[in-house]
Each structure stands twice: as structure tokens, then as C-alpha cells.
Amino acid sequence: MLTKRFLISWIASSIVMFAISYIWHGIFLTDFSRLSYPKEIFLFFAVFVYLVIGFVSAKAIDIKLLESRFKRKPILKGLISGACLGFTLFVMTYVIGVSFSTGSKIENLLLDGCWQTIEQGIGGVVVGLAHFFVFDSSAIIED
What is the domain extent for residue 81? Predict the structure, then answer.
């Protein structure tokens, strides 16, 4: 069900994760200079990818595994689900070979893995904040 809370958390987390990714890869690491195709094409597809990641992050906060321990802690629940998603994405991109990493040295792998976990963890916090601040009448359970 597409609720107001879900839509706001999805779009907000996508924007925040895209922005911090752009700052990290484009400004601090200058990874965009190594692209073999126009940066605009990369950014166009990156927007789509971050919308998908934001969607998954907004859905992941509702998994039942986290519900029992963090029912009244949406920000922590968002952080944990986002960090798990980030680590999973890191492993998938490494296996597929889609990465800005310049090599498979352990230092590069650790940096990439930590960054992806932090980035999606921040996205999860944004989802948790939306769950905390955005009223959702469907979340009220009547006895």
C-alpha cells in the first residue's frame, strides 16, 4: 500500500542517498572523471538506481524481524535496515563488478563496503525519521 508515510520516506531517502553519493564520488573522490561515457548518462541512471534503493529501504523498515525489538524506535530500525541493505548492495555490486573501486585490494574493499553501509544507513535513518514525523492513520491498530 502506498501511504503518505511510505512515499515521503521513499523519495526523501532516495534524494539524500543520491546527494551524499554525488558528494562522495563526485567531489571527494573524483570518481566521475574516470567514467568512460558522459557523466550525464551516469547521473540519469544513478537517479533511477537510487529511486529503487530508496524504495527497498522504505519497504525494508517494515520487515517483521525488526518489528519485535524496535517497534517504538523507527530511527534505529531505519538505521539497521538501511545498513544491512547497504552491505547487501556492496556485496552484490562487488560480485557483479559494478564499482568505482580501482582494485580489489583489501583497503579498497573495506572502504567501499563501509561507505555503502554508511550511505544506505543514512538513507534508513531518513526513512525512520519519516516514520517518526509523518502521521499515518493506517498504522493505527484498533482493538
Answer: 4-136
- CA 71, 74, 80, 83 dihedral sign is positive
Maximum Cα–Cα distance across the chain? 59
Residue 33 lies in a domain: yes
Q: Comparing C-alpha atoms, which of 26, 21, 6 is closest to residue 126?
A: 6
Q: How far is CA 107 from CA 86, 101, 103, in A?
A: 18, 10, 9
Low-confidence ranges of the chain (pLDDT < 50): 142-143
Per-residue pLDDT tens digits for 61-79: 888 777 777 778 889 999 9
In SS3 terms, 92-136 reads as: HHHHHCCCCCCCCCHHHHHHHHHHHHHHHHHHHHHHHHHHHHCCC
> What is the total count of domains within the chain?
1
Query: Residue 79 domain-assigned?
Result: yes
Residue 26 falls within a domain, yes or no?
yes
